[in-house]
Structures are given as C-alpha cells and as structure tokens.
Design brief:
Two copies of one chain form a homodimer. Chain A is an alpha+beta fold and about 140 residues long. Chain A has one domain: HIT family, subunit A, CATH 3.30.428. Chain A has helices spanning about 5-10, 50-70, 115-135, and strands at about 10-15, 20-25, 35-40, 75-80, 90-95. The longest helix of chain A has 22 residues, at about 50-70. Chain A starts with 5 loop residues before the first helix and ends with a helix. The model of chain A has no long low-confidence stretch (mean pLDDT about 95). At the A-B interface, helix 2 and strand 4 of A face helix 2 and strand 4 of B.
Chain lengths: ~140, ~140
C-alpha cells in the first residue's frame, strides 16, 4: 500500500490530486516551493513509472507549476527530481527570482533561510484556493 | 526558427530525436550526464510548452534516462529543469552514485572535477549506440 516517506509526510499538506499528493516546503523564505509526490508504491526514479503514470504525474506537475506561477510570479520555475536523501519519488517545483539570495545558483548551492510558520500558512491557504479553482472549477 | 543557445550548442552532440536534441555534459567526472533540449522556439519554462509538447519531451527524457541507467547503472537518476543561467529550456539527466564526491547533495552544491575529453568521447560513443538501438532498433 502507498505510504508517504516520513520526510515527506512531515511537510505541510496542500492538496491531493488523482495521481499525486501536493505538499509545501517552507525551507526557503524567498522562494515558494511545492513537492508533487505520486501516490504509487515503491517508486524511486521517474523511469520506475509506466508511461501512463509518467504522463499523469507530469500533468499534475504542470498544474502545480501554473498555480505557483499565477500566485507568485517567479522569474523562473525550477522543476527537479533528485531524491538522493529521500528515496521516494517526488518532484520539486520551486519559484525562483533574480533577486533571491541563491540566484542564479540552485537552491541547493548553499543554505537558505526558512519561512516562518505563519508566512508558510498564508501561502498554503492561497495555493489551496487556486488548486481548488483550477482543478475543480 | 529554433536555435540552440550558445551555452548548449557548445556541449558534445549525442543525437537528435523527434522532439529534442540530446547533448552530453562532461562537467562532472564521476557522473555521466545528458541534456535533453526540446527543439521548440522561445521556451524557458516547462509550462511554456503545450500539453502535447510536454508529453513528447518527457517521453524523450524517459528514453534518455533508460539509456543512462542501462549503460552506467546509477544508484539514482537526478532529472532537473533549472535554467537560471541558460534560459533555453533543457532537462538535466544525471547519473548519481552513493560514492560520488557530492553524494547525497546535488551536483550543484559544490564544484566538481570535469571529465577528460577522451573519457567523455568514449561515453558518448556508447550512448549514441544505445540510443540508435533503442530508438531505431
């Protein structure tokens, strides 16, 4: 049965879509950041998914990207599947700005300041509302 | 008309598929690394593609991933669209190993030793052959 990895379970819940669970990563104050986690057992790499699962996942990654672009107007979206530390397949969708502290490097180049719980919750409320509108509306 | 960004043009050519050009990045000695670049004008973010273009691109990213997995048996594949420095949309497909110098961090966390031209060319020959087999075979 599908079960979220502990490191992903701990993140703030945003919404659940047909193929994935969406979580919010508050680790980088300057950059709103989602995690898109396919609800499929024992998957680590993208190529562990069937073609159909890959396509369904990427449709939801694109939806998550559109939500973030519409709300937070990034200069660039970084989309990445890394999973070196957390082996369960998950896709990072990160808003980047030309004036954010790590620009133009990745958010992984150096340590970054996290958001406060309150900032994160405010963003998550906005994100939830836009997912509801785009997905069910 | 579609034109490769100079920074991508300079990379070692591997092959051309219906939707993308595949290049080899020799920047990290420990980790064979491909770039999958959709041949579509003026695209920066994944969401700038139509759904059909997204799906065609990801089919070729999965093919590139399979080629790299089969040849180089990574412990983990990192797949990422960053584009902060090179604005033309391109997808990194990077073989990672639990004993590579940056593990478990991303390859972007610290500077890495590049491959020699000869090592890179040997790998590119193998990669070309397997693409030809998988794609045309």
């Amino acid at each position: 049965m599908f079960k979220l990895h502990k490191a992903l379970e701990e993140k703030i819940h945003v919404t659940e879509l047909p193929t994935s669970i969406i979580k919010f990563e508050h680790q980088y104050k300057a950059c709103p950041w989602l995690l898109v986690i396919p609800k499929i057992e024992n998957k680590g790499n993208f190529t562990d998914l069937t073609l159909e699962e890959q396509q369904k996942l990427m449709v939801e990654v694109a939806l998550a990207s559109e939500v973030m672009e519409e709300l937070f107007r990034p200069d660039r979206l970084n989309i990445a599947m890394i999973g070196n530390k957390t082996p369960q397949l998950h896709v990072h969708v990160i808003c980047r700005y030309e004036n954010d502290p790590n620009w133009p490097d990745t958010i992984w180049n150096k340590s970054v300041e996290p958001m406060s719980k309150r900032e994160a919750e405010t963003m998550v409320t906005q994100i939830k509302a836009l997912f509801a509108e785009k997905y069910y509306g």
